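I'm stuck. Please check this protein.
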Amino acid sequence: MPASFWFLCALLLTACADSGPGVTKLEGNTMGTRYHITLVGLQADRVKLQKAVERELETVNRHLSTYRPDSELSRFNRAPIDQWIEVSQTLFDVLRISHRISELSGGAFDPTVGPLVDLWGFGPEPRTQVPAPQAVARALQQVGYRAVAIHPDRTALRKTAPVSVDLSGVAKGYGVDRLARLFDTMGALDYLVEIGGELRLKGVNAGGRHWRIGIETPSLAGGAGKAFKVTNAGVATSGDYRNYYEIDGKRYSHTIDPRTGYPIDHPLASVTVVAPTSAEADALATALNVLGPTAALALATKQDIAAYFIEKVDAGFREYYSPTFEPYLP
């Protein structure tokens, strides 16, 4: 599912305010958005660090981009049906993460949802009218994560139906994790890595305290909510309060439920997930957002997912969280 600008808006990176001796900050463009990195105490040449970051991000794009016709993912999407294709460890790992979250959520997360996203006007072409039910039904026939088989013994994938894989719902998180591993190999003990709002945090900030992030109040005006302390984890937020359109007075969210073919229509405004990796947090936040308040909280509680929910109510917003999220509260 396309990860749009609201991911960045949903997380106010209060931790990025850290500066001073021993702090290195890097930033740039990638995956249609921006990345920001704060390294504390790592003794390394800044120019060499930037080049290493750019190389790592280029590798991710070379494997996972849907915009590059020569990317490995694009080639796989063009591959024949019912033929095992040997792929890189990168593509294999990201598809395996996606498949696991798809299974866990009963299909609420689905990397083949692209045809529905395009149909509803959140792809290259905007819409001025609601698609007909027949068009939704046809698009649904092109969606189904189970149509991508993962080989049990080799790094190989196979399509069993004419689906197209779009990993934008997890690629930014995976890119964050790749950069985190890069810094780990360099001996970094304390860092914050962010791509388009997806985060990975390790150690402490320049003040020697846990990194803190603030979740934005889900309104057009915005505004900082609670600041949570997080370290040694990935963080992602999914919400529908910025990317939507209205037709005839009805609001249509950019988040499409792959199970029904229609935009989500429930009061859950945003979900923030803390997970071992940013890729997992990225996919889980989308899945929980699709599921809606009751099912999302039930799944997060059952599976020990650290999730923080903001729900629209008559009086404004209601905030609550799964039991596993409690250690991150201020």
Q: What stands out?
A: The domain at 72-168 is CATH 1.10.3980.10 (T-fold).
